[in-house]
Amino acid sequence: MTTTLTPAADPATARAHHRAGLAAPSSGWAPGYTQANLVVLPQDWAYDMLLFAQRNPQPVPLLDVTDAGSPATALAPGADLRTDLPRYRVWRDGELVDEPTDVVDLWRPDLVAFLIGCSFSFETALLDAGVPVRNIEQGRNVSMYRTDRACRPAGRLSGPLVVSMRPVPGALVPTAVQVTARMPQVHGAPVHVGAPEALGIPDLGAPDFGDPVVPADGDVPVFWACGVTPQAALMASRPPFAITHAPGHMFVTDVPDAIYRAL
């Protein structure tokens, strides 16, 4: 089911909608609460993923890692990682094979889930600081792009850095940098401001993931490391099986964003 609905203000209600089958991007849902990217891999790939995160902390900031076979996370007690995201992706040998709204039938005792910080979590902080968030204004998923920057390889995992882009009024770029720099567990400060070609991005109007977001006059493109980076690594490294969130369709946790804000 894909439909529109006024975004829920609290995490439990947001997850209930997603559990019921609402497949909508989660930007703007449960403002003030941390959202997380999801990567699920067989246990024999778990060390590679842990090492990949340790070596690439800006695009892959780990918030939680589950025990093998467990669909539970300390980030939202009582939630179920098999059902409580709005949309998932299923990968076999690095190829996307399905985008279901639950993965109950695919869950196995050897699967380990990784919850990774998401830039949606700092959107509330940007708004509080007076920085407009165009993708929320336009009711669109954020724009995401593969770059020509390689992540540091780890075991069998390697791939390019993926970034999310938000158009920011030029005068407010320093504010956006300062606000997000205080939240390293949800990607932190931008990795680049300005010319997309410096990241190997040929056309901002054609994102690799998400939707094109229209800038306003005077806006500057600002790029943050993105939690879709592990999906690019899955495509490049081709593990036999994996589950992830669909880009922009995050797990809404019970953890306030303020927990991850440096003083």
Structural key phrases:
11 strands, 7-stranded antiparallel sheet, alpha+beta, 263 residues, 18% helix, 25% strand, 4-stranded antiparallel sheet, single chain, 6 helices
Task: Please provide a written account of the structure.
There is one protein chain. This protein is an alpha+beta fold and 263 residues long. The strands form two sheets. Strands 1, 2, 3, 4, 5, 10 and 11 form a seven-stranded antiparallel β-sheet that branches. Strands 6-7-9-8 form a four-stranded antiparallel β-sheet, covered by helices on one side. A hairpin with a 2-residue loop joins β3 and β4. The chain is globular, with a radius of gyration of 17 Å.
Summary, kept brief:
This protein is of the alpha+beta class and 263 residues long. The chain has helices spanning 11-19, 46-55, 123-128, 134-137, 173-181, 229-237, and strands spanning 33-42, 62-65, 88-92, 95-98, 111-117, 143-150, 160-169, 192-193, 219-225, 242-245, 251-256. The longest helix has 10 residues, at 46-55.
